[in-house]
Design brief:
By secondary structure, this protein is an alpha/beta fold. The protein has 2 domains: about 130 residues, Aspartate Aminotransferase, domain 1 (Alpha-Beta Complex); about 240 residues, Aspartate Aminotransferase, domain 2 (3-Layer(aba) Sandwich), CATH 3.40.640. The protein has 12 helices and 12 strands. The radius of gyration is 21 Å and the shape is globular. It comes from Rhizorhabdus dicambivorans. Belongs to the class-V pyridoxal-phosphate-dependent aminotransferase family. NifS/IscS subfamily. Its EC number is 2.8.1.7.
Length: about 375
């Protein structure tokens, strides 16, 4: 008899594919399998029609136009294309701005551009993980090309003031890029009203498939000019030269459609569950700190530091019961303090002791509260042994 499957509480790392998304994708693996670039025959035309519908769904979900959506193989690829592509398409402006709490797929392209001669500014955040719009405004120069600030942080859940930052960038004539990977499953974003010029999207963070993403590239004035970073065929306007993965883009489109329809209800439910979870822990353990902004946060994210409790030891104890995370899933296997927590708290015990619990759309509240009781018991025992 196999052991029971642990409760999955790591939705900020990846989400299960919604069964409705799977149903929508399945015919495009076996029945409608044509290459969407082969428009001279029926099979290709059917595949192309599916890609067109998916592009429309993605565009509608974020207030964009169909011609502004470029499909990619991941949000990481979309971030690289946005940042490297914008810089190389506008070589006369040599200054770019980001924050210390961005995903590595934003920070690493910035570091690459620094090696290529661009000046980079990395803004700090406060102890809630928020970047101040005033700091963004103060960082801008006459030669600033791009500001990149994520919509919401994957580790501590803080939602950034992207509308205010977008307005600052628009007034200054600076491109604004936002990694929206974590935000779109719980909040609607209109890229036009938020003055976002480039936006990256992930399939597997919003109950869609892995291996697919999208980049919004503004075509309206002020237009975002982006140069390709991959070379080959002319697919996706030459910005992503590869055969479009029809089943996956169909899944991305459907996942965004569902998110648009139910993000408000999903968010209310998750916020209530996560609030009850945190309240239980705070009521039964001393020395508990909750990381990230108290209200402007992802509804399903709980970043927690417990004084005297090492998170990897806690995870080891609780692995049979639940899957959760001590750091970002995109980090290396080397154990080191998260740069996000370091930016918020410095090299402190609170930073080192942080872990993340993130329920999702299909998490049962009773199961989550049962896990809260197990977590309290194991944390208390670990603290006793440590003392």
């Amino acid at each position: 008899m196999s052991a029971p499957t642990p409760l999955y509480l790591d939705h900020n790392a990846t989400t299960p594919v919604d069964p409705r998304v799977v149903d929508r994708m399945l015919p495009y693996f076996t029945e409608v399998f044509g290459n969407p670039a082969s428009v001279e025959h029926v099979h290709g035309n059917r595949a192309q029609a599916a890609v067109k519908r998916a592009r429309e769904q993605v565009a509608q979900a974020i207030g964009a136009r169909e011609n502004e959506i470029v499909f990619t193989g991941s949000c990481t690829e979309a971030n690289n294309l946005a940042i490297l592509g914008a810089a190389r398409a506008n070589p006369d402006k040599r200054h770019i701005v980001t924050t210390a709490v961005e995903h590595p797929s934003v920070l690493e392209p910035f570091r690459q551009l620094e090696r290529e001669g661009w000046d980079i500014t990395v803004l700090g955040v406060d102890e809630q993980g928020t970047v101040a719009p005033a700091d963004v405004a103060a960082s801008l120069r006459a030669d600033t090309l791009l500001v990149s600030v994520m919509g919401a942080n994957n580790e501590v859940g803080t939602i950034q003031p992207i509308e205010e930052i977008g307005d600052i960038c628009a007034r200054a004539g600076v491109l604004f890029h936002s990694d929206l990977a974590q935000l779109l499953s719980c909040r609607k974003v209109d890229v036009a009203t938020a003055n976002i010029h480039l936006a990256s999207i992930s399939g597997h963070k919003l109950y869609g498939p892995k291996g697919v993403g999208a980049l919004y590239v503004r075509s309206r004035s002020p237009r975002a000019k982006v140069a390709p970073i991959l070379f080959g065929g002319g697919q996706e306007k030459g910005l992503r030269p590869a055969t479009v993965n029809v089943p996956l883009v169909v899944g991305l489109g459907e996942a965004l459609l569902l998110a648009t329809r139910q993000c408000a209800a999903d968010s209310a439910r998750l916020a209530a569950m996560s609030g009850a979870f945190r309240d239980h822990i705070a009521a039964h353990l001393e020395g508990v700190s909750f990381n990230g902004h108290p209200t402007e946060r992802l509804p399903g994210n709980s970043s927690i530091s417990i004084a005297g409790v090492e998170p990897l030891a806690l995870m080891h104890k609780l692995n049979p019961f639940a899957s959760f995370s001590a750091s970002s899933a995109c980090s290396t296997e080397k154990v080191e303090t998260s740069p996000v927590l370091l930016a918020m708290f410095g090299d402190s015990a609170r930073a080192r002791q942080a872990f993340r619990v993130s329920p999702g759309r299909f998490t049962d509240k009773v199961a989550l509260m049962d896990f809260a009781q197990q977590l309290v018991a194991e944390a208390a025992q670990l603290r006793q042994f440590a003392g």
